[in-house]
Prior knowledge:
By secondary structure, the chain is mostly beta strands.
Amino acid sequence: MKLFKVKMAVSLSLNLTTGYLLAQITFDDYRRADSIILFNNLVYHQVISPEWIDSTYYFWYKTRTQNGEEYVMVNSKKKSKYPAFDQQKLCSKIKLKTGKQYNAYGLPLSNVSFSKDLKVLKFELDSFIWKCDLKNYDLNPLGKVNNPEEGRYWGESINELTNKPVLSPDSIWYAYIKDYNVFIMDRKSSREYQLSYDGSEGDFYSSYIVWSPDSKKIATNKIRDNKKRYIYFIESSPENQIQPVLHKREYLKPGDALPIKRPALFDIVKKCQISVQCDNFLNQYDISNISWRKDSRSFTFEFNQRGHQVYQVIEVNGSNGEVKVLIDERSNTFIDYSSKKFRYDVNDGQEIIWASERDGWNHLYLFDGQTGALINQITKGEWVVRGVEYVDEKHRQIIFRGSGINPNEDPYFVHYYRINFDGSGLTDLTPEPANHHAFFSADYKYFIDSYSTVSQPPIAKLRSASENKIIMELENADISELLSKGWKSPEVFVAKGRDGVTDIWGNIYKPWGLDTNRLYPIIEYIYAGPHSSFVQKDFLPVPWFSCIAQLGFIVVQIDGMGTSNRSKAFHDICWRNLKDAGFPDRILWIRAAARIHHFMDTARVGIFGTSAGGQNALAALLFHPEFYKVSVSSCGCHDNRMDKIWWNEQFMGFPVGPHYAECSNVEHASNLRGKLLLIVGEMDDNVDPSSTMQVVNALIKANKEFELLVLPGENHTSGGKYGERKRRDFFIKNLSGIEPPQCNQIGNQ
């Protein structure tokens, strides 16, 4: 056997024999790998957190220089920039007021704002709100920062009966719920009128009442309530007591009964209810967005059918309750309502701008708001609208984000465009081949454009949206110090997917001291959630997951089929098929990369991910054990019947049929062949931690070997510092053949 050495970016010298590393690795090596995350601070002169000041043409931003953080003010009209305030003066004033010494270019200010006339600066520091007069730098505290109470848990349903009485626009009436029915009260006389009589405890009217603008009608929903489901978990080691604590969260899962809402209409003048025919909307996931027309002629609501294959905009006549379908969106697979829905009512609903994938790509359409007839398709082509920034009704133009229009660049790069309602005049406001982020002035005439790629540092310019020209250069990032440290950008790689035609895009993260004559194990960082795409597109020198590459791995990140922001056909791979996770494309992509990069060892491939990525990471071993050998799966939703209703029914559909079991890691646990580490937080209220424990149960029953790390007190997590160390240990041992550091022998690390 031939013995040779591998030199790694963290200055390791490891012996490699027939593909197996034989030496030790130390915590110092881990620390050196971790230290490169600080290299993110070596990018100077980029625009950070820009904010326009009210309706003015002034904006400010932070930028990092060799001095530290500096605040910059820009006058768009005069095309000038200058220090937003004297940081040394402010620092001195802060010391006088608080007795604390800060670095003028390291002030830990938050919630910074300027008055419209630029004379007053407000910020939060050291738990206080401060006001600074920028004329004389008089600094005074305005009070303590009010820490907001913990918000409503995302899974908790709204109590439809607890809203306060709703005042009519003319201030004459209150509308409210009493004994589960709708009442109104004359504010002057306090005389009460009952408008409904069929409400009951289990079938009641919602207190979220919506008045017509003329104060003559009200709309609400009558709701047949559902049975709540809860998840339970035990906090084993609470900080304030010895005994464990039982917690519960409201948490609907796929197939659970949902509240049934039926829109209801009431005439205030006649003191009566107007019948609304709702039979066609009872098979619902939700009814939402009750909204009156400004002239009170009607109100609209949106109907999302259970299973997400029908989504409609419905109009209800305010005089007679007659129902009309204005937009009827249908799909044989799923409608991506949670990520792609866009609706804008033009001129009080005379027209409606609507987003749809009906032609196979996400585009904008213009509908007649009276008849529901399609007027014209606004955007068109084999590319996608990523979001709408602004609708200019006066000039009948739209500013939107799009990707995939330019054939010679990454199809995920976001650009900003302007187009006319009739589909003419498509203009790229951000033509540079990069990923763009725009920040618009209040009137959308100007915008800050910051753009970059994974290898090109950020450039920021002030542009005119109306005239489509560059107003001034703002910042051009300096990475010379970063390069002096030996930093290397990830490699963007493209290979054909399972159909032999479609391009699959991803990144390759290599050790900075790469030795191309040696073989490196491959680790895929995966998140294949169908709600978006995930591969890095912006300039970020060191994403957290790339630190592991410095320990002697090739790390890859890929957007396979089934993820979003490409064609509808590309996305539809995920439908009722979350176990697919794009693996056929990912495997082909990695093999194609290895054919070019001979230092990539496809015989030693690991994978890790969290949440949906945790599900994917285990699925790799269960459904593709011929390729993936080692997996670390954190807080995975291992059976889609166990996870939150909205996300899983969005892509797995309703009813809960055999396809749910076919995609379950629990059902297929006996297929395990590789090395597996499961990580779960005992307090996870995002993905039911029982999902992981059910996998554990199935693996034990199948007599399989695996490792389990349960983190006391932790919520939805990749593992934190301890979990990260265990993940590295697992890959070092099982992919590199090296014994990881023995922390029990050398004390706390």
